[in-house]
Amino acid sequence: MSFQGPTGPSSTAVEMEHGHLPVMVEEVLQSLSPFPGSLQIDATVGGGGHSRRILEANSPDGRLLGLDADQAAVARARKRLADYGARVTLRQSNFENIASVAAEEGFAPADGILFDLGLSSYQLSDDERSFSFRAEGPLDMRFDTSRGVPASKLIADLDEKELGDLLRRYGEEPHARRIARAIVEQRRLEPIETGAQLADIVARAAPVPPRGRRRIHPATRVFQALRIAVNRELETLPEALAGAVETLRPDGRLAVISYHSLEDRIVKRFIAAERRGCVCPPEAPVCVCGRSPRLAPIGPQPRKPSAQEIAANPRSRSALLRSALRLAA
Question: Which of 62, 144, 151, 217 has the most CB atoms in a 10 Å sphere around its CB?
Answer without folding.
Answer: 151
